[in-house]
Amino acid sequence: MISEGAALEREVSQNSDQAFRSSLPRASTVQHLEGLMDLDDLCARFVQAQLAGDRREALRLVMEEGVGRGAPASEIALRVLQTAQRKIGELWQDNRISVADEHLATAIAQVVLAHLYRLSPASPLLDKLVLFGCVEGEHHEFPARLAADVLDLAGYDVRFLGADVPTESLVSMIRRERPDVVALSATMSFNLRSLRMTVARLRSDFGEAPPILVGGAACDMLADPAQELGADGFARDTHDLVGIVGRLVSRPAPLAGREVLGGIP
Ligand code: B12
């Protein structure tokens, strides 16, 4: 921000340990915990670079001090980029930074995520197609992209559709591409209705196939997101994502669904 500039950057740095560590997962070993603590510090400095609008420094931090020192790209995506974006959200909510500052920070996170994707080891292709996008009205593309990249690197052929995908257009693409899974993202709670309606529309047009996966912060508010939204699966974060999609693509396709898809000219 740069409205309060250096003072805020200092504060972010001082408060970072406590604030960031509170969102970290349980560590199973001391070694693992040490690794995560390093990433805490990296995250704090990454946020400072975002706030300063310093893209080069943000990239350097992640590439040299993260990847360069052996941290897996997938861990960096979660423990640095995801956590940093949430911190940016808190500062924005508290009116400590402006919308322009948030846009600047997010643009930096996007560039870094693209570099991480390029550097990450990818599993062999599985010959399974996933259409992954945000439901109509949903503008938070970054969370969906982060999750989509994880599936892509796990070997899925992921077509990432980005933000605010018109339902009609999604339906047309499903007819054309015949994906093995459709993954839908919603961050804002006001988009739960859009998510519910999209799932219902896909069911009405395609029956039980392809299976539908839902996710995003909006779903976290529901007790049983998949069941309440009429979907086949839900993943809260990228840790469970690959396993859940693996189960969805390996389950036998219901006859009715096959017929519906098979009937597409
Ligand atoms: C960047 C940002 C924006 C950008 C998004 C740009 C982009 N290209 O993505 C823009 C400017 C568009 C934006 C707009 C708005 N935003 Co905003 N935004 C954010 C911010 C700061 C970061 C988002 C992010 O990158 N998060 C990090 C990701 C990686 O974490 P995640 O969301 O948990 O995602 C993980 C999981 O959910 C999961 N996942 C996600 N999708 C999927 C899909 C599937 C299928 C699966 C399985 C898993 C999965 O995997 C992800 C990776 O692990 C958040 C803060 C926050 N806490 O997230 C606010 C935030 C979400 N925004 C907020 C608000 C209020 C808005 C606006 C209403 C502001 C306004 N007045 O216009 C609009 C709404 C726009 C809309 N209609 O969608 C609030 C929401 C509060 C609430 N809960 O209601 C937040 C929390 C900020 C805040 N603290 O106030 N925003």
Report the β-strand fraction as a percent range.
Answer: 5-15%
Order of helices and strands, N to C? HHHHHEHEHEHEHEHH
- Poorly predicted tracts of residues: 1-31, 255-265
Bound molecules: cobalamin
Distance between the termini: 54 Å
Q: Could you estimate the helical fraction of the residues in percent?
A: 55-70%
Rg over C-alpha atoms, rounded to the nearest angstrom: 19 Å
CATH class of the largest domain: Alpha Beta
Main beta-sheet annotation:
5 strands, parallel
Task: Compute the average pLDDT.
Answer: 85
* CATH fold-level assignment of the largest domain: Rossmann fold
**Number of helical stretches of at least 4 residues:** 11
Describe it for me?
The protein has 265 residues and is α/β, with parallel strands linked by helices. The chain folds into two domains: 5-119, Methyltransferase, Methionine Synthase (B12-binding Domains), Chain A, domain 1 (Orthogonal Bundle), CATH 1.10.1240; 129-262, Rossmann fold (3-Layer(aba) Sandwich). The protein is 60% helix and 9% strand. The protein has eleven helices and five strands. The protein has a five-stranded parallel beta sheet. Helix 1 (5-21) packs antiparallel against helix 2 (30-51) and helix 2 (30-51) crosses helix 5. 39% of the residues are buried. The model is unreliable at 1-31 and 255-265 (pLDDT under 50). Cobalamin is lined by residues 82, 85-86, 88-90, 92-93, 102, 106, 137-144, 146-147, 183-185, 187-189, 213-217, 235, 237-238, 241.
